[in-house]
Amino acid sequence: MSNLPASAARDTVIEVENLVTHYGARMILKGVSLEMFQGEILVVMGGSGSGKSTLMRHLLGLERPTSGCIRLLGRDITRMSHGELVDMRKRIGVAFQTGALFSSMTVAENIMLPLFEHTDLDTKTMEIMARIKLEVVNLPGFGHLMPAELSGGMVKRAAFARAIIMDPQILFCDEPSAGLDPVVSAALDELILRLRDAMSMSIVVVTHELESAFKIADRIAVLDEGQLLFLGSVDALRRESNPRIQNLLNRRADEATVDADEYLQRLTGEDLNNRAAR
Amino acid sequence: MAVKQTRGSVFDTAENIGRNTVRGVEEFGLAGVLVVQSFYWLVAGPRQRQPVRLSAVFAEAREIGINALLIVGVLAATIGVMLAIQGIFTLRIFGAESRVVFGLAKSMTREFAPLITGILVAGRSGSALAARIGTMKINQELDALSVMGINPVRYLVAPALIAMIIMVPALTFFSELVGLLAAGVYVNLELDIGLRAYWSQVLDSVTIDDLAHGLGKSAIFAVLIAIVGVVNGASVTGGAEGVGRATTRSVVHAISAIIITDMLFAFVVTR
Q1: pLDDT tens, A139-173?
Q2: What percent of chain A clears pLDDT 90, i.e. is strictly above it?
């Protein structure tokens, strides 16, 4: 699986081992294992319901798994106390799909919130740091606006600025280009690449946008129905012969197999076997 | 076929009752956990460098208390006058109109001021709390707080709960004063009892026990309003429509909880 020549020598920042999760009685992730290296951009792909959002929520420690372990920066977050998890979260940043900016605060206040809560810096310093991050995401001078006054792409940029304010070692991005026009979403891809190169962050991107994934990914993980279908470089993914992956790459719908009896039963709402027996 | 359908609907009904019961028990559990956690953060937060911010408590207190002064005052005055009218009407049957002050003082401090204030705050601030938490949930803002290492209970719930516990009794005391004064003006016009004499009769009638009864009750109402709002907000699913449903539900639940608690409290305390 080693597509990166030096991967063996690089530090792993995320290790997921045999992760199994349930939502109610339904099994979502069915034993997913993957690892991610320092300074790499790992794109997690998959259709709706593939479990990629669930994987992300578990990597962030928002949900507890049924079994398996998740090591971030060498420490298992599934067995951490609340205090330890808070310390871990100071070392990661998250840009949510909707931006999740607090609507009652200005953009700058949003960006400064982690500093305000976790550091003893004075306000002046925090404001300067917020301005630096706004420059990084190319939103200079927008700090005084309220989130409602920003466009969709600007909200996502501001969310990135908040995510990187504590200079995290790992950055998570959930669907960065969802709902954006191609130009804006290309600019966000550039931003992700720039963050990795300039701040040597390790970045996990969850997306279903093929074009964006191919542009930014060092390696791609493909999830399908709760299982890891593929993990490797972009080139290796293109060469992959698995039909489900080919369908994903060529945007073909999976052909559903039709069982005639089952189909009829679904339509009539009756159990045909029982009726025959009666 | 008909038999099968009846059986099906009986099972469905039973299943629904079961599900709703489980959901109800879950919500009670969540409510208890939220109260305990809020006080935990208030006490232990500073040691973990995660204090409950005083500025947040003040902001909530201003919204819950100060901004409600006018409407609470108007309603308390109206209730006071209404009680005076009814009291005088009833006592006139026995020719004992002048005893109305005693009844006014007791019923306003023990019952009407806490109840009307509680209902008003539930409609004004409890629903706003549910809507705010619900909106934050569907916008992933609660998740965002968590992943920033900021505990949502400490950051959002504790300030609202503490502000409620301070402001609802304060508003109740305010509405006792306003209600009794407004009743005094009516009594003065109707029975020709001087305001000064009226007020000294009020002070003679009201005991510490009456005040404690009303204010203690209102503190319990405060906890109910805050927690019902938060629990309903946190259970929002399904977008903006879900927020609307949760807001309505929180007002209905909070007012029901207030009235039932009021009766239980009166029963237990007067034994």
Answers
A1: 898 999 999 999 888 999 999 999 999 999 999 99
A2: 43
B143 and A100 within 8 Å at the Cβ level: the answer is yes
Which residues of A fall within a CB distance of 8 Å from B141?
100-103
DSSP label of B69: H
Q: Which of B52, B148, B153 to mutate to test the interface with A (most CBs of A within 10 A)?
A: B148
Tokens representing A193 are 């690449």
Determine the distance from the C-alpha atom of residue B200 to the mean position of all C-alpha atoms in its chain, rounded to a whole number.
Answer: 30
Answer whether A114 sits within 8 Å of B150, measured CB to CB.
yes
Which pLDDT belongs to residue A275? 55
Asked whether the beta carbons of A158 and A130 are under 8 A apart, the reply is no
- Distance between CA atoms of residues B142 and A159, nearest Å: 14
User: Binning pLDDT at 50, 70 and 90, where does residue A4 land?
Assistant: very low
As a whole number of angstroms, the distance between CA B208 and CA B89 comes to 28
**What DSSP designation does A18 have?**
E
Mind listing the pLDDT tens digit for each residue in B157-200?
999 999 999 999 999 999 999 999 999 999 999 998 999 999 99
Quote the CA–CA distance of A18 and A32 in Å, as a whole number: 5
The shortest C-alpha distance from A98 to chain B (Å) reads 7
Nearest to A117 among B143, B144, B150 (CB): B150
DSSP-derived pairing of the beta strands A75-76 and A67-72: antiparallel
ipTM of the complex: 0.82
Host H or E run for residue B218: helix B208-234
- Using DSSP, state whether A81 is helix, strand or coil: coil
Is the CB of A113 less than 8 angstroms away from the CB of B148? yes
Check pLDDT > 90 for residue A268: no
Domains of chain A with bracketed CATH: 7-91+201-277 (3.40.50.300)
Q: Residue A62: which of B135, B139, B147 has the nearest Cβ? A: B147
Angle at which helices B100-107 and B69-92 pack, to 10 degrees?
140
pLDDT tens profile A45-85: 887 888 888 999 999 999 889 999 999 998 999 988 888 89
Q: Find the CB nearest A96 among B135, B140, B150.
A: B140
Q: What is the predicted pLDDT for the residue at A276? A: 52
Write down the pLDDT at residue B5: 57
- Report how far residue A133's alpha carbon sits from residue B164's, in angstroms, rounded to the nearest whole number: 37
CA gap B65, B61 in Å, rounded: 5
| Domain of residue B17, residue span | 2-269
**Contact state of B149 with A90 under an 8 Å Cβ cutoff:** yes
Helix then strand count (H, E) for chain B reads 12, 0
How many domains is chain B built from? 1
Say if A210 is an interface residue toward chain B (CB within 8 Å): no
**B100 vs B11: CA distance, rounded Å:** 57
**Test mutation, B22, B140, B142, chain A, max A CBs within 10 A:** B140
Nearest CA in chain B to A163: B148
